[in-house]
Design goal:
Strands 1-2-3-4-5 form a 5-stranded mixed β-sheet, with helices on both faces. The protein is built from 4 helices and 5 strands. Helix 3 (102-117) crosses helix 4. The protein has helices spanning 2-17, 39-48, 102-117, 144-163; strands at 51-60, 74-83, 88-95, 123-130, 137-143. It has 193 residues and is α+β, with helices and mostly antiparallel strands. Strand 3 (88-95), helix 3 and strand 4 (123-130) form a beta-alpha-beta unit. Helices cover 32% and strands 22% of the residues. The longest helix is centred in the last third of the chain and has 20 residues, at 144-163.
Length: 193
Amino acid sequence: ERGSRLGEALEQYVLKSSMPAGIFTPDRAHYPLELLAWKPALDERLARYDSVKPELEIALDLAWRPTEWDRAAIRAKLDLVGIVDDTTVEVIDYKTGRQYPEHADQLELYATLLFHRYDWCETVLAADWYLDRPGEVAEHTHRRPEYESTLLPRWKQRAVADLSRTIWPAQRNVFCRYCAFHAKVGGPCTEGA
């Protein structure tokens, strides 16, 4: 809930900050005080983007063609996408809490989707900003040859495999301890025991 609230506050700040000159006034862009340490980094990013898209939604069908959000087989909502120049796009994903290995997979998927969406893009800069840890950033750079040879085939294969399942077996992970189905709280799942 807190992560969603902070993400929404940052989205509103980005939207108001990217309004044309003369419309934006500092008092209209309320910045969440608990993230004040991140404001200089965010303002620096916003100043260097040609255009910015907070909460960019990408929705694709099984053939990886754009489709409506509610009909999509593959969909993602990217916290902040900035067009840096005519060859480079940056995506920033806001995270609360600590780093987990699967965050790198998520950024790789986002890079794949951005290359797919923007055929002119040659480089995707992808970063996780760990909001609870000022200055902690995990950054990755992806280039179009990697997208064509590795990323797109890998993610298409993963999507087909996931979407063709009819049974989703439980898999132990770091979130098991919070699950209502966990055996320790009387649930039927034994995977997280």
